[in-house]
Design a protein that fits this description.
The protein has 312 residues and is of the alpha+beta class. Helix content is 24%, strand content 29%. The strands form four sheets. It has a five-stranded antiparallel β-sheet with strand order 8-7-11-10-9, with helices on both faces. The longest helix is centred in the last third of the chain and has 22 residues.
Length: 312
């Protein structure tokens, strides 16, 4: 294991390492190691005496750093002046640093300031001098994209077909498993999501999404989607923008809810209404339907010819 210097004033025997130890992910080249501007201290407890679970202080700090490197969340630690003293690999990706980044802050807090005491080589306290560890701030940002396992599991659990779309274009970047189950589409296949939408409905959907992206407002429309059985079913589509910390739209999330049953009921009601109107038109007497006085909803043919008085 590489030697690592620590701050002069360890916190309960544990200081901040000035460079990465050669242990697992903590030694990756695309990383910023934890460090401090304080001078080093050469003497530390041996394995099992100053660490946890049989690990030495050096090993324990390295394990903590390796854990931060393994997180999918972007973790940044800054000193009181705002200078970055640590970033994990997720925080240094172009996706996390872009202005339209799909990362949002889930934690931003000041690390607690600790008072520490000087210790002798044998671990016994010496003197009564108190030292203050410099304050630091930690910022944790989580991705709202489906690349985040938590987000992906939540979206996959929805009963609706759900997709994520780019914040700058209308392109779908991810579909939940319900899309594949209903349509029979293969994730690695040649067909796209658009190929499963009824040709007569594609233009309406494209126009609604384009208008929403321009106005930055939610969108909604109806479309028919072909299922794995080859039949089209009506779906109600609703989309919402997802903003990031900078107020920019990072992506859009849209759901498609099966509305075929409601559509069939609506069509049946319209058919019955049309038949009723036809029957009323055959009557020789005037028939007028008014919801409120002065507002006529329906008048049959006899009432509209003017040969009969229309009561209002």
């Amino acid at each position: 294991m590489d030697s690592t210097s620590f701050a002069k004033d360890p916190i309960g025997g544990v200081g901040l390492p000035t460079r990465t130890l050669a242990l697992g992910a903590a030694n990756t080249p695309n990383s910023t190691p934890l460090h401090s501007d304080s001078a080093g201290l050469d003497a530390f407890p041996a394995a099992g005496t100053g660490g946890k679970g049989g690990y030495s202080v050096l090993e324990w700090c390295s394990l903590l750093e390796a854990a931060l490197h393994a997180l999918p969340d972007a973790v940044t630690i800054r000193d009181a002046s705002g200078h970055v003293i640590f970033e994990n690999p997720a925080a240094m990706t172009p996706q996390a640093r872009a202005p339209d980044s799909a990362f949002i802050t889930t934690l931003h807090t000041q690390l607690p300031v600790h008072h520490s005491r000087s210790v002798a080589d044998d671990g016994c306290a010496i003197g009564a001098t108190q030292h203050v560890c410099p304050s630091a701030f930690i910022n944790v940002r989580a991705s709202v994209c489906a690349t985040n396992p938590v987000v992906r599991r939540l979206l996959d659990s929805l009963p609706q077909m759900t997709c994520q779309m780019s914040g700058a274009t209308q392109a779908a970047t991810w579909l939940n498993k319900r899309w594949y189950e209903y349509s029979g589409m293969h994730p690695e296949g040649q067909k796209r999501q658009r190929d499963y939408i009824h040709p007569d409905d594609r233009g309406r959907g494209t126009a609604a999404i384009a208008d929403a992206m321009e106005t930055r407002r939610p969108f909604g429309f109806e479309m028919r989607v072909r299922g794995a059985d080859g039949n089209y079913r009506w779906h109600t589509v609703q989309g919402e923008p997802v903003g990031n910390d900078g107020g920019r739209i990072a992506l859009w999330v849209a759901t498609a809810t099966d509305s075929s049953a409601q559509k069939q009921l609506q069509q049946a009601l319209e058919t019955k209404t049309a038949l009723l109107h036809t029957a009323l038109d055959q009557l020789p007497v005037s028939v007028v339907v008014a919801a409120v006085p002065g507002f006529m909803q329906f008048a049959n043919r006899a009432a509209m010819t003017g040969s009969h008085h229309i009561p209002m």
